[in-house]
Amino acid sequence: MHNKKASALMVFVVAGALALAACSRAPSGTTSKAPVAPANAFRIRVTANAGLTPWIEQAVDKFNQSGTKLAAGKPVFVDVSIVEAGQAVSDMTDGTNLPALWIPDDAVWAAVLAKRGQTGYQANCVSVAQSPLVIAMWRPIAEALGWPGRALGWLDVGTLAADPSEWAYYSGGKYGAALRIGHTHPGLSGSGVSTLLAIVQAARSKTDPVTVADINDPIVQASVKAFEGAVASFSPSTDKMGETLYQRGSDFMGGGVEYESTLINNGGGGGDTDLVAIYPFEGTFMATHPACVNDGADAQTQEAAKLFRDYLLKSDVQQTAVSAGLRPATASAGVSLGAPFDTEHGVDPAQPKVVYGAPSVDTLLAVSNLWQSARKNVNLVMLIDISGSMRGAKIDSVRTAAMQFAQQMGDNDFLTLMTFSDKIRVLIDHKKVADARANAVAQINGIQASGNTSLYDAIGTAAGLLKKSNSAETSNVMVVLTDGQDTSSNQYSMNQKLIDTAAANNTTVFTIAYGEDADQDVLLKLASGGKGNFYAGNTANIASIYQEMSAAFGGSVGIGR
Description:
By secondary structure, this protein is of the alpha/beta class. The protein contains 22 helices and 19 strands.
């Protein structure tokens, strides 16, 4: 385990972009490498949530090599896509993207899809693996909070977030001025919704499923708001949550809510600087990963889907699930829960002691609505390079992506919109998005490219605007897109002072190197210093980048807002 970690850290040192880049990942998920199917194969599509990665991809490869055939004699060939539950519901709502087999985190997602008119996944669901939701925390931070002698819970996180003096007392000032954690976007990911519901369960001291009335209780809502006060950003997927936390380290975030399997595959361990699984003492949810056959598909498609599901439940395949950090679907004969379910991998097979009952569609939707008001609002400055080198397809693509981004911001977020070439223009200055959305879209749509590049001065100006509008009620964010090197700044230079200026007032800095001529080294340093993300962008992926950033800030994506 420690060799794996050392290798990952070496990659971070040698290729710093890996630790920050998310450029090839779109929130809607990824597809496994292009398979080579026999000419006469009967191909089916399977959609699985990210909590099953990498087991499901390995299982698909082996299944495709097994020669499993339909009764009619054709070999079955599976194409798998990794898509989080909320995003999958959004993708499948219009009925044009329905896989033969869908494996979300929990069966409630099939009911959510049915509420949207697609009822084909409710009748035939069978769990293929399990994994509890945990708070992954860096061992030194967990120990500073009293773990393992002191049991920690969901509400403890909210208390520490709401009271900086208490955080300072326990942390000794070693881990930042405030507790920073992450979880997935509830509109995209089942683990994000489960995080919110777990806080409600803890606040109501209930193990049976909570009700909509419980969610509407003012004390419960205050508990959710307190917890969200510690959230630095939202990941588009569970595996992305784990990867980012592991790669960026304790300076980036103190912990994140993810599945136990994600922790095992991303830095969980027994060392002094590893991640450990906190199983909240109040209780937690267990992802059951039901494999649901599309009963609206033709008979052969259903037959093929069931053959693949049966394959996943074979003892040897279930044992490979255990090796990948997943608990078996049932106490199946021949499946042992040994390593990696041990302290050497940061987990405890005897936990969790309390598992919450599965939620209903109504509570899932109600807590997603609560999150809209409970999450910390964003105070965002968007900087767009409009120098002459941005002409043509570059500026066209940025316009489209940035307009969509503005459309997805929350009504109570604040937006400052700036463009820069040899001149810096503030098109919108700290306006509530509900009042400025239409103007923001119009302003972005009207930008034209010309002139040189005053990148450093634009960043310094943006930092000054954030300082003026800084508030404890909002999270400061700077998003910088540029396609070139600075050519005309006269107030600021690229040095530690600029990095510190950009990151002042607890500002998270996201940077986009748009095209090969952008100064990636500068943008990497700015993003790293501002505890944000760096993206290597181009006209093909710029929409994906803005979509992922929208998720990070709590934008309206998936089934969200």
